[in-house]
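Dear Dr. H.,

I hope your travels went smoothly. While you were away I took the liberty of generating a structure for the chain from your last submission, since the lab meeting agenda had it listed for discussion. I wanted you to have the full record in hand beforehand rather than looking at slides cold. The sequence, exactly as received, is reproduced here:
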Amino acid sequence: MSLIEFRDVWKSFGPKVIYQGLNLRIEQGEAFTILGGSGVGKSVMLKMLIGLLKADRGEILFDGQHVETMNVKDLTKLRQRVGMLFQGAALFDSLSVRENVAYGLREHLHMNEHEIDERVSWALTLVGLPGIEAMAPSDLSGGMKKRVGLARTVALKPEVLLYDEPTTGLDPINTTRINNLIVSMQRAIKITSIVVTHDMGTAFTVSSRLAMVHKGRIIESGTPDQFRHSTNPLVRNFIEGNAPEDEDMASLVARNA
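The corresponding predicted structure, in token form, is as follows:
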């Protein structure tokens, strides 16, 4: 049984159709990347997985349980098993790094101050930022903020970690740092990772498997090597960064509908 499964999932916002028959399986321990251009609904998929958005129809299963029928209590339990790194890191400016990382521990776990200090130190060391507990978010670079946000997420020791465009807004050096960090964390704590991105460098660096979303469906899935050698013209254009003329794109879509 797959850890996560989307079965014939449909989702629209008014007249805008996001998914029309989404089918996807993610196995425990995978580093799985979801590819697609801006606005195709990659982040919507993550939000449906943790019950922040409801599918219009279809089934979403997490560890054999139906997310779409969970009540508030069950969704709370699910979210304690899943951590999410948001695009902007979402740190609290009025709190120190220590208090930011400790925030979820205070909200969800029964830990004393000594235990909290140990967990915060462990999480910051894991993301390569030991000893910065007293710093303020305003004193951090963009890359450091991302890493502190990741430390806050992993401090809760989730089973699944969701990365929503983890390298957006970062320079090439910090992008490489974040990519290497995702890989090292995957090895260190044996977590299931789901990465949403349109950055092919990130996708090929961090993934054991990938899937590409187009027109509300998965049009291709496989290993990084299989994607590199794909003959699907939509996939090739995405990987190579080509932008066909409208009429060319229409013919590509028609051939791959």
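Two observations you may find useful: Strands lie at 4-13, 16-26, 31-35, 57-62, 65-66, 82-85, 160-164, 192-197, 209-214, 217-222. The radius of gyration is 19 Å.

With kind regards,
E. W.
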